[in-house]
Amino acid sequence: MKVLHSVHAADFKSYDTALIRERFLIDQIVSKDTVNCVYTHYDRMIVGAANPVTEQLELGNYFNLKAEYFLERREIGIINVAGDGLVTADDKSFNLKKFDCIYIGKGVKRVAFTSKKSETPAVFYFLSAPAHTSYPVRLMTMEEAAKVDAGSLATANLRTINKYIHEDGIKSCQLVMGLTTLQPGSVWNTMPAHTHDRRMEAYFYFDLPAGQKIMHFMGEGHETRLITLNNYEAVVSPPWSIHSGCGTHNYNFIWGMAGENMDYTDMDPISITDLR
Ligand SMILES: O=C(O)C(=O)C[C@H](O)C(=O)CO
Ligand SMILES: [Zn+2]
């Protein structure tokens, strides 16, 4: 499993494009009939995806975990971003349509991914963090997720933030996870921007049409840098970094965090005019 080490904010200032991409970009995680995982040293969050097309895929074990099985000391949140699929947790299977989320807690020995139809395969994006106790498996549809409407058309950031795994939603040890959808004509997410030194964050962009691009801004608010992303690519955001994207077309993205607390609203906002 690929490993991403943590970066100090002061060092980041001197990074060029290639180094920013090497340290923060998570690409090539969606590939046919494969489960791909990247181990980050930001709160030990694992970022991954499974794209079962012709066969059922299992979440394997990895040397990095030094565990008997993947969820021996971990929890996982999974969101389907494509065709209908099934997630199996030990002996129970759950149907996941596009935008549905499932949480699987510590202690579940077998996790498997299946697509309903190979012509329209599922793409399961997942985040996994260390867990101290076991919370029950729970499925949540997008309709059931807590919703916050944000932004406006005038500022090209009209969007809906859907919260699945959070303090008042699906119970977890430290995972907080959700999905934001942008209206046509709206291209900015997370603007005004914020940081939250208490939690790392990862963004996974999807539903971005071919030929389009995401400009994702990171760095301290007074020292921002740009990383460009394609559809089905993710980027990790250190606790000192803003995480805000602008697309050349509207898109959707999954955000997820782990760290000191689970309070979604615990953010340190930066005013737009203070960004540099
Ligand atoms: O569009 C947004 O704004 C977001 O989705 C923000 C993320 O949820 C986030 O950064 C949570 O800390
Ligand atoms: Zn955030």
From TrEMBL:
Its cofactor is Zn(2+). It comes from the Bacteria. GO terms for molecular function: 4-deoxy-L-threo-5-hexosulose-uronate ketol-isomerase activity; zinc ion binding. Its EC number is 5.3.1.17. Zn(2+) binds at H194, H196, E201, H243. It is an enzyme of class 5 (isomerase). GO terms for biological process: D-galacturonate catabolic process; D-glucuronate catabolic process; pectin catabolic process. Gene3D superfamilies: Jelly Rolls, pectin degrading enzyme 5-keto 4- deoxyuronate isomerase, domain 1. Keywords: Isomerase, Metal-binding, Zinc. Belongs to the KduI family. PANTHER family: 4-DEOXY-L-THREO-5-HEXOSULOSE-URONATE KETOL-ISOMERASE (PTHR38461). Catalyzes the isomerization of 5-dehydro-4-deoxy-D-glucuronate to 3-deoxy-D-glycero-2,5-hexodiulosonate. This is 4-deoxy-L-threo-5-hexosulose-uronate ketol-isomerase. The gene is kduI.
